[in-house]
Write the structure tokens for this entry.
Amino acid sequence: CYRLVIDPSMAEAMQDWNVLQALLRRAAGSVELALIILLAMMAWLVAAFSLGYTGLGSSLPTFRMQLPWILMLCGVLRVFITAAGVTDKCARVPSLINSFSCGNGNDREQQHLVQFIVSSEAGFYISNVRVSMGMVMKFMYLWSVVLFAIVGKGLSKM
């Protein structure tokens, strides 16, 4: 985007966007299996934490025993939030380019570039599913409900 301000060449900007999109797809494809494993591990961590919490009780020593699980869960969440942040930044590029004033009568080319970027749907993909912040938040909400349900049920037995 910075180079577009200095040299408003729309053809070069399209080429740069293609390179960026290819780089994102390649990077996401390289770490895809690891991220799927992390996602499965996160689901398992929530279940292990909640079962350990309900099985061992709700005392401070129990919390200390569960602290590594909580830290691992936070680390996995950070990875997915970072990946979703990349997608969200890519989604804001068209409005940024729309705000530029090329001044050379390149409005038609500028709109073509914006449509090209919107249509490319660049971002971070896992198994051809675009990872967005909304998706990560929905996942967190779902597992929070599961966690609170299990912990609540365990506390009601005490």
